[in-house]
Design a protein that fits this description.
12 helices, about 325 residues, TIM Barrel, alpha/beta, two-stranded antiparallel sheet
C-alpha cells in the first residue's frame, strides 16, 4: 500500500481513512473498537470524528478505546467543531470563545493531550476568518492541535483562509473535507483544482453516496426502514434521488463486469480521482470494513474511469450532498 502526503504537512496517510459517523449511532462500542483495531492493523492510520457526532458520544467512545488496545500513537486523530453543542448563544460557530471551549471539551472526551487534525466543520459567515484562524493558531502553539483544516467549505472561503494565514503568519489549512462521490462531482469544478494549486489535501466524505451507490435503495420515496435516509430523514433523505438510484443501478452492473462489488467500485473511484488524498469509509460493522479493505491495494483503470464518467460527467451531479451547506444554492434534479 502506498501512503499519500496530506497537503503540505508532510504527514503520510493511507489512501482510505476511517470515518466514525456511525459510532454510537448505531454501531455499539465493542464493535466500534473492533473496527478501529482492524483498520489500524490493515494500515489505515487516519480516524476522523467530530464533537457533534452522537452528541459527543462518538468522541467518548474513541477516548475509551485507548485503554482497550487501540494504539493511540499509531493514529492520526481528526476531529471537527462548528455545530451547536449546547443551549447557550456561544455554543456553536467559529468564534474564538467557542473553538477553544470545543477543542478542550473534545480533548477531554477523546482522553488525549492533542488532536492531530482539527477541522472547522462548516464555514461561519458571521465570524471574521482572522478570529477563527487566530484561535486555531493558538491551539497549535499550545500543543493541543497539530494541524488544522476545513470541511465542506466553498473554494473562495478556503482561499481566503490561506491568504490570511500567509499574510498574518497564522497556522495554514492542510486539507479540506468535502462530500464527493459519483453522484455529486461538483468539487471537481473549483475545489479540487484549487487544492491542487495551493497544496491542500482532500479527505472526502460519503463515497458511497449514503449507500445509493451500493444498491441500498430501489426507490427515492419508499426507503428501507433501517436505512439512514429513513432513520434520520431531513437532509439524509433529500440526498436520495431517483436519478441517483438509476446511476447506482448502472454502477452495480459495471462493478459486476469487473468482478467487484458496487461498494468497492464506488470507493475505488473516489480514491483514485485526481487530487484526492483519501475518502472516508464509515463502516457500521466489522464485516463492512473487511469488505472494503481490499480497495487499499486496487487501482482504477483508465477504461473503468471513462465508463464511470459516462454515468455522470466530470463536474456534474444527480444528487446534492452539499445540502448541509447553506452556501450551496444550486439545485440538483
Amino acid at each position: 500500500m502506498e501512503y499519500r502526503v496530506l497537503g503540505r504537512s508532510g504527514v503520510k496517510v493511507a489512501p482510505l481513512a476511517l470515518g466514525t459517523g456511525n459510532f454510537a449511532d448505531p454501531t455499539p462500542e465493542d464493535e466500534a473498537i473492533r473496527i478501529m483495531k482492524r483498520a489500524i492493523d490493515a494500515g489505515i492510520n487516519l480516524i476522523d470524528t467530530a464533537n457533534s457526532y452522537s452528541n459527543g458520544d462518538c468522541e467518548r467512545m474513541i477516548g475509551r478505546a485507548w485503554a482497550k488496545g487501540v494504539r493511540r500513537h499509531e493514529v492520526i486523530l481528526a476531529s471537527k467543531a462548528f455545530y451547536r453543542v449546547g443551549s447557550g448563544p456561544n455554543d456553536e460557530g467559529l468564534s474564538r470563545l467557542h473553538l477553544v471551549r470545543a477543542c478542550e471539551d473534545s480533548l477531554r472526551r477523546l482522553q488525549t493531550d492533542y488532536i492531530d487534525l482539527y477541522q472547522v466543520h462548516r464555514p461561519s459567515p458571521s465570524i471574521p476568518v482572522d478570529e477563527t484562524l487566530g484561535a486555531l493558531t493558538d491551539l497549535v502553539q499550545q500543543g493541543k492541535v497539530r494541524y488544522i483544516g476545513s470541511s465542506t467549505h466553498p473554494a473562495w472561503k478556503i482561499m481566503e483562509a490561506i491568504m490570511v494565514s500567509e499574510m498574518k503568519g497564522y497556522a495554514r489549512f492542510v486539507c479540506e473535507q468535502p462530500p464527493y462521490n459519483l453522484l455529486d462531482r461538483r468539487i471537481e469544478n473549483e475545489i479540487v483544482p484549487m487544492c491542487q494549486a495551493y497544496g491542500l489535501g482532500l479527505i472526502t466524505w460519503s463515497p458511497l453516496a449514503q449507500g445509493v451507490l451500493a444498491g441500498r435503495y430501489s426507490s427515492a420515496t419508499d426507503l428501507p426502514a433501517d436505512s439512514r435516509g429513513a432513520l434520520r430523514g431531513g437532509i439524509y433523505s433529500e440526498r436520495i434521488t431517483q436519478p441517483g438510484i438509476e446511476v447506482g443501478e448502472k454502477m452495480i452492473s459495471l462493478a459486476k463486469e469487473q468482478g467487484l462489488s458496487p461498494a468497492q467500485l464506488a470507493i475505488l473511484w473516489v480514491k483514485d480521482q485526481p487530487g484526492i488524498t483519501a475518502p472516508l469509509i464509515g463502516p457500521r460493522t466489522l464485516e463492512h470494513l473487511e469488505h472494503l479493505l481490499p480497495v487499499l491495494d486496487m487501482t482504477l483503470s483508465a477504461e473503468l474511469a471513462e465508463a464511470c464518467d459516462r454515468l455522470v460527467p466530470p463536474g456534474g451531479a444527480v444528487a446534492s450532498f452539499f445540502n448541509s451547506a447553506t452556501w450551496m444554492k444550486q439545485r440538483v434534479i
